[in-house]
Amino acid sequence: MDDDQPTEPRLTMLVSRASQIRQLLAVGQVTRAKELAAQQIADAPDDPSSYLSLVSILLREGDANAAVAAAEQAVRLDPEYAVAWQVRASALFRAGRFAAAEESLLEAIRLEPDEGAYFQLYAHMLSFGGKNAQALEIVQVALELDPDDESAHALFASLLHQVHPSRWRVSEEAARRAIELNPEDADSFAILGVLMMSQRKFAEAEGHFRTALELDPMNQLALRGLGQVVMAKNILYRPFMGYALMMERLGAGVQFMVVGSLWAIASVLRAATAEPVSTFVTVGYLALCAYTWFATPIVRAILKRKYPWI
Amino acid sequence: MTATALRPLLRHLPDARRSRMYLVDPVLFPYLALLFGLPIVVLFSCFNAAALRRWGLLAASLGLGVLGWMGFLQAVNVLSDTAFALIGGRAVNFAFGIVFYFLQRAHIRGHAFLGGQLVPLRPFYIGALVVAVFMPEPMARVLLGVPLG
């Protein structure tokens, strides 16, 4: 028998230990998980998966640089092991080394081009980097590879809504498909709520946000969405909420253009009018400018004040 | 799309660096440029760059500041009426403030991604507005970059 290959009982032991580590992490027993991971590395120092367990523990502890070092050790031990490249990519991303993380993930994809999860992770990375259109293309590949992956459907729905808001029907179908595949996924309900809200179907949106919160009481997207729905129902708040949501969706570039154009209009009006009209123009401009620029934080502040549970 | 067709797209995204200090959110730069002029924006931009130990960014901030000041003077000189000259100058400042925003956005986002702190927006916004309202006119002009005399 080849000495380098683990024997079957040893392999079973290693797999069982890796599963034990995952379970310990799930219940927050990080110290015990770390002890097991150290033991695993001592027992199988040439097995890259031993280091991968350690990576997840180090990431959990917030030590991204140590996690990168452990992942690099796994890659060195077996450069053809796609999972090691993917884990290294995750660790690099958490350490803020975005370009290196992308390269590592692309290597994992090159080694295992049929693994939808890698494409999904890549779509998340691209979305973080502001490349939503490309992320949308990548998540479509993930869906082709694994049409039953609910998180890929949810991500597709969310990205499509951001890139092509007019294709809301397709986004809605994807979000509903994600829920069909996993009715316990709070994120999918929250995304469907956001889609309903963008169609001004407030009652439906509220229902989806509430379901998401029943599944995960700390779901940020659902909490914010529910607050916005409740406020949007109030006739006094509705125009402000609508404007804030629009500005949030359009992004900083458009906000700058709006503020700049308003300023040009206000300047001309001020030059053409006398007191007290010019003062009103200035005050009005500053108020609108503040609301445009700080639409998101102002809405959050109003929500927190009105609904402390948020 | 095949795996071989994939090309790196995040190559230009700078690695995140975290500073222990509170940094100024670049979303404030166009606003500050409009209210006070570019010098204060250059100051904050250089502070952010130095705190993140990004010396290239610091040099770019200084260079852009000089360019912006030249643009401001050009705009002021072109328009003969003082009121309209200041409007033109402020418009140039605002435009350069937007450039500063895009220059710093990725770096500050990286700082925040790693858990770094940012100066709170609302108090800063309101504070800047109060200072701008009560600032004496000569000082405001000096800050704007209007040459003395």
Structural overview:
Chain A is mostly helical and 310 residues long. Chain A has 3 domains: 8-113, Tetratricopeptide repeat domain (Serine Threonine Protein Phosphatase 5, Tetratricopeptide repeat, Alpha Horseshoe), CATH 1.25.40; 119-233, Tetratricopeptide repeat domain (Serine Threonine Protein Phosphatase 5, Tetratricopeptide repeat, Alpha Horseshoe); 235-310. Chain A has helices at 8-26, 30-43, 48-60, 64-77, 82-94, 98-111, 116-128, 132-145, 150-163, 168-181, 186-198, 202-215, 220-232, 238-250, 252-272, 277-293, 295-306. In chain A, helix 1 runs antiparallel to helix 2 and helix 7 (116-128) packs antiparallel against helix 8 (132-145). Chain B is mainly α. Chain B has 6 helices and no strands. The model of chain B has no long low-confidence stretch (mean pLDDT 87). The interface between A and B is large, with 38 and 37 residues.
Concise description?
The complex is a heterodimer of chains A (310) and B (149). Chain A is an all-alpha fold and 310 residues long. Chain A is built from 17 helices and no strands.
Spans of chain B with pLDDT under 50 lasting ≥5 residues?
A: none
Distance between the termini of chain A: 61 Å
| N-end to C-end Cα span of chain B | 64 Å
- Indicate how many domains the architecture of chain B comprises: 1
Look at the structure and give the mean pLDDT of chain A: 83
Which word captures the global form of chain B? globular
Percent of residues in helices of chain B comes to: 55-70%
Count up the helices of chain A.
17
Describe the main β-sheet of chain A briefly: none
SS-based structural class of chain A?
Answer: mainly alpha
Strand portion of chain A: under 5%
Listing every helix as H and every strand as E from the N terminus to the C terminus, the arrangement of chain A reads: HHHHHHHHHHHHHHHHH
CATH class of the largest domain in chain A: Mainly Alpha
Share of residues in strands of chain B: under 5%
SSE pattern of chain B, N- to C-terminal? HHHHHH
Structural class of chain B: mainly alpha
Q: What is the fold-level CATH name, i.e. the topology of the largest domain in chain A?
A: Serine Threonine Protein Phosphatase 5, Tetratricopeptide repeat
Give the integer mean of the pLDDT values of chain B.
87
Largest sheet of chain B: none
- Which chains share the greatest interface? A-B, 38 and 37 residues
